[in-house]
From TrEMBL, chains A, B, C, D:
Similarity comment text for this entry: Belongs to the PurU family.
Protein name: Formyltetrahydrofolate deformylase
GO-annotated molecular function: formyltetrahydrofolate deformylase activity
Recorded catalytic activity of this chain's protein: (6R)-10-formyltetrahydrofolate + H2O = (6S)-5,6,7,8-tetrahydrofolate + formate + H(+)
Keyword annotations of the record: Hydrolase, One-carbon metabolism, Purine biosynthesis
Enzyme Commission code: 3.5.1.10
Organism field: Nguyenibacter vanlangensis
UniProt-listed PROSITE patterns: ACT
Top-rank taxon: Bacteria
Start and end residues of each ACT domain: 13-93
Function recorded in the entry: Catalyzes the hydrolysis of 10-formyltetrahydrofolate (formyl-FH4) to formate and tetrahydrofolate (FH4).
Length: 293, 293, 293, 293
């Protein structure tokens, strides 16, 4: 799609962040211009509170290795001058994504469907579950390897080592916790920092502890929601990528809340994963900058 | 509107709650039928968890005192049999409502406008503020008496006594805290229980303490919301009547959140007040049953 | 679920409509009370414009054939008196549903998933497509028979006859057009009236003709939506059951609109089917009464 | 707010559109850098269908006349090279806005309130109505001149001439039709092209002719909406700036739809006016590019 065999054009996404000062945009735009790049999308954000500057640029240019190497060298030079952190992705290269799931598979089924019809530009590297394969009998996993990694209190450290090995062996760039109900340890969370997306319910007001939909029902809330966020060592409190809500009423039983919650969870997670795959999310301390579409 | 001079029909709203058991609906419907009443709206809810039953009925019948007295006596008899709590309101009689405000007047202005164009069937009895009249110079309060009741830490008890006297003198049936930023004491909250509606911001996750919109901004939330609830002794935690949210992004400054918050607050409070005035809200322990339209 | 083996209780949904006049609710409630029925949900609507009255009642009572026969006889008697059309469904009996699909299978996949996890109380009787089985290679259809009924201009009448036979042979009570892109003939639409749900895109303003998402894009709309409705002879104009929208912007290409459209279509269709299966929808001329949850 | 007396910094918004080709961003960014400008917001959009490029840049730089003149000359030179249409606004200069209203004043009241509390950075130059001043007795118009310009079929041309004179005499840069129910003539619409915002209801499907809320009610729609757009000679069909919807049900009477419609209309119009005042809207043929916040 992003490779045009005739002209050998490739499309790239460049993201960057740095302390804000005059000249950054000019320097970047000039660099891309000198590389014969044509900017097709650009979004910027200047965080006046932290003094940080964020930018996402989509551009096309000739797809030969020499050109790309030259461009990377030039970007390095600009980056050194402005203390820029940057990433450059060829949009034709799909990210490698490891999917994790527990008993409830609505998010997994949804992500696989969106991947299959071409909506999520990723390569699933593995499906990891803490339940055996037959729990998901009705899911066509195609060629994606399935790994059953059960977890018990005294085997948790070992299970996480196997999981981490799997991430490395499969060269997975992103881990999606598609309703994986085990809390990751602080050390694994730290290793996966900014590379692991989780989904959880959220309510107004919030509820701690078990059976949150039942708590929300007991409180009589009129809205229920879900939040997708990056995993950090601090459970359920990582940088928020996306949120959404749905209306509920006194007619809704706790089961109805769970049902409506499923719908919110899958669409919020799918949006967050798509934003990540499309390099639309940049970390800004405990927050995110999301250049939406 | 609800009085037809020709046939002298009046329209009533009956609300009731009681322990659920067979025969309630039949008993009520038969009673109204015997009073020559014609049911035009009816909503019921059976809370299977608490075993309580809730009902709201709108009906019209001949508007003479004798008939009404007879009907009330019959409803008393049915109520005794089923341990029903009930209220019966002639829909032509507007509720008397006392409005309270602090510095931010967007909810007050909105409620007065909706009242003026006939959207809120109420009679404002007083506007009470802890700021002087000229704070609201641009608001046309018409004939509604304005009361400046300033409050300081050591005068709070006295101020609340004056407020309570005002509620009684004006026969106010409902107090609306239209962004009145003083916390009511537990004793006044108890006196006003179920008769006082408050509006406050709400977020996913929630934030305690001062400058909540700034906290929400610091956390990077993607949605902000507002909750209208009945006041109880337990601050900001009374039974929820209505909630709504709006989407925000990293572009939104704390001031933008406050601006969007104003829009949500005024529409959520207006809906909650309208539901109350239309007898659509019935208390169910710490929750509400809201028979929406 | 709705059968309690100990007490042999069954749960029923009664829906009815009739010209409004006093006494209907009392007559129905008394009848159910005499059958030892316990009403757990009841919703009513009085259409003051047409003078019609609509009611949905969920109740439980002893599950023996004699009792049910007696109840049906009594309901017949009440119905005769008030000119009531009514239906009574044992909630333990799942509706038989025939699903139709064309090339785009997102709605079909979604409905099957919701059925599998118990969200949609139905029995799929057949999946009918105008594309061969391998178009849907990744869909686990379980035991549901698949029928490939291709259609061409000169075979349309014959294809519809086969379809109609299938509906009858399978005793299907509902046909769901899950993005079945063939227009049904007027005669088949008439046969399926009130028993066939369709989903289509909708926009503000509306667009006629081919490639509607492209037309909407060309017009620069800021919202796109979908409508689920009963099929009538009048294409895309049957009684509306449910609608929803999503926000779009100038950044969205026609393909993005199609992608967002898929999300709206599947959730709007799923809600409409659930409302139908739960006897929440009653026809009111060219409109519907939907007793939502 | 945008003037800092110490450093004499001013903040500007630059908007531009032109045929897309490489080098535009670099040229603009370099020009602003050479003017010692600091870019704080920048948004771009490349319309691949039309080949047009759109950009909005907010930047601050030293506020002296010489510097500004130099910058404008440089921008002219860049514009000539790339065939750019551009505008440059000092954000401290409020736009002059003429407000028009008919009988229903909910949008006018809302706009005035938002202006008064500082939410809309504009200077109202006049309020023009086709009803006399006492129709709006409860509205505090402060110092804004009120003009009663009644209109009848044979006086329409004359009335529009008076209106146009008023626009010119008051140097109004924007006309807001805040539920002004008279259709502007093609010639006046052409004169005001891109400078006049209108608000009207919108439905799925759409309805032509009188009493649209009644038509929508008769059709049984489940959503009602409103659209804000620039006025063109083609009634109700100008480039769309903003849209929103609200959910309705069979319980809603036509009057309820009108009430809900008021809420949607006022918030959609307020957003559209704010976007315009903040230079967030750029015309793109029959569409708009809206760089939202």
């Amino acid at each position: 799609m992003t490779q045009d065999p005739a002209s050998m054009l490739a499309t790239y996404t460049l993201t960057l962040s740095c302390p804000n000062r005059p000249g950054i945009v000019a320097a970047i735009a000039t660099t891309l211009f000198e590389a014969d790049g044509n900017i097709t999308e650009a979004q910027q954000f200047d965080d006046v509170e932290t003094g940080l500057f964020f930018m996402r640029v989509v551009f096309s240019c000739r797809a030969d290795a020499e050109r790309t190497e030259w461009l990377r060298a030039r970007l390095d030079a600009v980056a050194a001058r402005f203390r820029i952190s940057w990433t450059l992705h060829d949009r034709a290269q799909r990210r490698r994504v490891l999917l994790m799931v527990s008993k409830f598979d609505h998010c997994l089924v949804d992500l696989l469907y969106r991947w299959r019809i071409g909506e999520l530009p990723m390569t699933p590297t593995a499906i990891v579950a803490n339940h055996p394969r037959d729990t998901y009998a009705h899911i066509d996993m195609g060629d994606i390897p399935f790994h059953y990694l059960p977890v018990a209190q005294d085997t948790k450290a070992a299970q996480e080592e196997r999981l981490w090995s799997l991430v490395q062996q499969t060269n997975s760039e992103l881990v999606v916790l598609a309703r994986y109900m085990q809390v990751l340890s602080d050390s694994l969370s730290a290793r996966l920092s900014g590379q692991c997306i989780n989904i959880h319910h959220s309510f107004l007001p919030g509820f701690k502890g078990a059976r949150p939909y039942h708590q929300a029902h007991a409180r009589g809330v009129k809205l229920i929601g879900a939040t997708a966020h990056y995993v950090t060592a601090d459970l359920d409190e990582g940088p928020i990528i996306e949120q959404d809500v749905e209306r509920v009423s006194h007619f809704d039983t706790p089961d109805d809340l769970v049902r409506k919650g499923r719908d919110i969870e899958r669409r919020v997670l799918a949006r967050a994963v798509r934003y990540h795959l499309d390099d639309r999310v940049i970390l800004n301390g405990h927050k995110t900058v999301v250049f939406g579409d």
